[in-house]
Amino acid sequence: MLLRTNETNFNDTLLSLLEKTRTMDVSANVTDIKNMYPLKWIIPITIVYGIIFITGLLGNVSTCIVIARNKTMHTATNYYLFSLAISDLFLLISALLPEMYRIWSPENYIFGQTFCIIQGFAAETSVNATVLTITAFTVERYVAICHPFLSHTIAKLSRIIKFIIAIWVAALCLAIPQAIQFGVEYDVRDNVETSMCSVVTEGLFQHSFEISTFLFFVGPMTLITVLYVLIALKLRKSGKQCRISRSARNSVAQKKVIKMLGEFHNLSTIKGI
């Protein structure tokens, strides 16, 4: 009887030790997940992100208010700037704020599946709209400098507004294939559940991200580079023509002065005689 009691006590003690060890392992794993990023890096990064967010928010909101309230600023260039400010605000809210949360809690996404998809959709839309707006603005500058007569037709404010609306519609539509691939990915390691918002269904639209990279980076970057080279060549040619024209005008002026001095000299000679 005494032996059985001792055996029971030993088993209870062993089970208690195993349970404590298991609890300590789980706690250690949770601590490792929370400390994935060193605190000495998290705080400076958070401060930098905070400064970027505040300055970006104030700057872009101020830009939108100033352009919207002042009719004298309703120009083609300022309309493109207004569109860029809106896309920047989307990017700040949909990308920077979640990133700030992620560095503090890298594997504990609490906002759910729907918000994860909306977050990805907003981020993709803002990037697409920014790239398309910059490209359209570059095309408008190219037409204004290299084809000034055509610019009067294309650069009407009503047309610019239609272009910007088309840009945002295209940005929204082309962001859908990437957005629906976002989701909350769950994982269990040592009885600790982790979750993070990431791409979870890449096979649904295979190569969609590669296509998006070409459409919104390689293609626009190539077009912008070519157009700015053409603008530079046009300005260089115009500068040479201005110098030639200025030189011709100076030559005509010098001839007039010489002719006038010659006539004055002849008149003085006649009077002397």
UniProtKB/TrEMBL annotation:
The chain crosses the membrane at residues 41-67, 79-97, 117-139, 160-180, 214-233. GO terms for cellular component: plasma membrane. It is a multi-pass membrane protein. Its main location: membrane. SUPFAM superfamilies: Family A G protein-coupled receptor-like. Residues 59-273 form the G-protein coupled receptors family 1 profile domain. Keywords: G-protein coupled receptor, Membrane, Receptor, Transducer, Transmembrane, Transmembrane helix. Belongs to the G-protein coupled receptor 1 family. This is 7 transmembrane receptor (Rhodopsin family).
